[in-house]
Amino acid sequence: MSATTLLIHDGSAAPDAPVTRVGGLPLAPAGTPWPTCTACSGPLQFIAHLVLDGGRGVLAVFMCANDPGGCEEWSATAGGNRAYLFPPAGLVPIPLPALPASEDGDTDEEADEEDDEDVRQPGAVRTVERVAVAGPEYGAAAKAWSERSGRPRRHVLGQLGGVADWLQYDETPDCAGCGRPMEFVAQLEEGPDPLTAPNFGSGSAYAHACEPCGRAAFLWQC
Questions:
Q1: Assuming Cys at both sites, which of 71, 72, 201, 205 could form a disulfide with 78, CB separation 3.0 to 4.6 Å?
Q2: Cβ neighbours around 184 below 10 Å, total
Q3: How far is Cα 127 from Cα 54, in angstroms, rounded to an integer?
């Protein structure tokens, strides 16, 4: 019987730990620039570092948090988010970009003191435990894990591989390189920790990749 690999809310880690985690610093080939939003030109928020099975690489996911809802950050093609498929070795932390200037003329440091929310990073780093649960259906696997472990269902932070559990309709993106449908790689949830919760509109996010083309895409539904 096939199994679903759940991502379970776990402990903290160093910001640059080379493990599957939410938050911290992205790891990428040297010289990779921090991505910016196509709509507002501000730095995107780094969401997750996902280590794929079998040495297939690392998925880095970013999303705009500068103007929630205004940059169509839920879309795989609008430019309000970004996903990258990197090789598994030789990755280094991308330095944090400067914070955007505030509208009232405060310096970056003053604006940061007034507002604890950093548009570049979640407020903490959260690692995940991978737990295999029998069965191919994500929702059923998450429910079974919760009942077996005695932990809340919201501690399931998503799944790695498997079959996407779409909240609306199937939005599998096509690869911008070859035009073929991308492979589903991971599903992400906001989770129970407000310090590490991405804003998916209380919904779920979906990461896809085309390994032959070395491309990735990201979107969310609510």
A1: 72
A2: 17
A3: 19
Beta-carbon neighbour count of residue 168 at 10 Å? 9
CB 207 within 8 A of CB 172: no
Q: Which residue matches tokens 């449908």?
A: 181
Residues 6+ positions from 53 with CB-CB distance below 8 Å:
160, 161
Residue pLDDT, tens place only, 95-147? 999 887 765 555 444 444 445 678 999 999 999 999 999 988 999 999 999 99
- Torsional sign, CA 22, 14, 145, 184: positive
Q: Residue 81 in 3-state DSSP?
A: strand
Phi and psi angles of residue 31, each rounded to the nearest 5 degrees, phi first = 90, -5
Q: With beta carbons less than 8 A apart as the criterion, state whether 27 and 91 touch.
A: yes
CA gap 187, 184 in Å, rounded? 8
What HEC string does 187-207 produce? EEECCCCCCCCCCCCCCEEEE
Q: Give yes or no for a contact between 73 and 63, defined as CB atoms under 8 angstroms apart.
A: yes
Residues shown for the chain: 222
